[in-house]
Amino acid sequence: MKSVLVTGATGFIGSRLVSALLEKNYSVSTLIRPGKNTDVKAEKIVGDLTDSDLDFEGKSFDCVFHLASCTPLEKDSKVLEKVNLTGTKNLFEAINGKTKSIIYISGLGVFGEPGDKVIDESAPRNPNTKFVSIRLEAEKYLEKKCSENGIDFSVVYFGDVYGSKGWFYDILVKRLEKKSFRLPSGGKYFKGFVNVDDAVGSMIAVLEKQAFGESFIVADSEPALFKDFVNFTADQIGAKHPGNVPTFLAKAVLGSDLVKLLTTSMKVSNKKISEIYSLKYPSYKEGIPKVISEIKENESLLQK
């Protein structure tokens, strides 16, 4: 039985990863902050990445999945550095010599503004926000330290991960239902979406296929206009198509980094990850109906 550690295990993607790993009979440990809870079948290790005394005494892992991170909603650059960069350094110091491999999770923002070109993993990293610059610095730190210490390393760049929780539910579905969602810049920019089940499946595939020393873009097989994605979601829940909002107003509410990441057009190829993992939902048109069904089921259970 392989032993793995998951950071960010209480988040939407991390919690789904923990459940999937347990279903595949992995021995799963989760690093969570005091007062938080995760799957009862996983071993809970209480700790904080920002603690320089973070310790995993007596523990060893075949792989560490590092998902823990502040989101682009965090506007304080000092907090971003403390969690996303210093926290990553603290994690490495704590697990060095105690793990065989590390899989680091990042996003497509590392590629900056590639324009209309369809990019793959060979594209230059050229982040255009403070949030992503810090994340890339953390990635480079891990890559260097893993190389120096004989630890296998890979990085996975997710597109916009949608599912029954997280931004898709809280920001999109809820606001569409309340008629309060607006499309920044009219939604006329391409994005690489990915269903959370495929995000989780791809991470596990990297481990099981021992695809280390690599980077992988994980996104749908075809880029989609954000406007089309939103309108399709609205149709699925019987809501009206939303109107538009000027970019400057969106930045005032959500913050400059998040809006820039959201409105930057991004066309990517998933050819490389497809060589080791077959997407269950190659398009949002297959994935969103499944997610909406799951949301309705969750809401029904809450009403009982």
Automatic annotation (TrEMBL):
It comes from the Archaea. GO terms for cellular component: cytoplasm. GO terms for molecular function: aldehyde dehydrogenase (NAD+) activity. It holds the Pfam family Epimerase. Residues 4-213 form the NAD-dependent epimerase/dehydratase domain. PANTHER family: NAD(P)-BINDING DOMAIN-CONTAINING PROTEIN-RELATED, PROTEIN YEEZ. This is Putative nucleoside-diphosphate sugar epimerase.
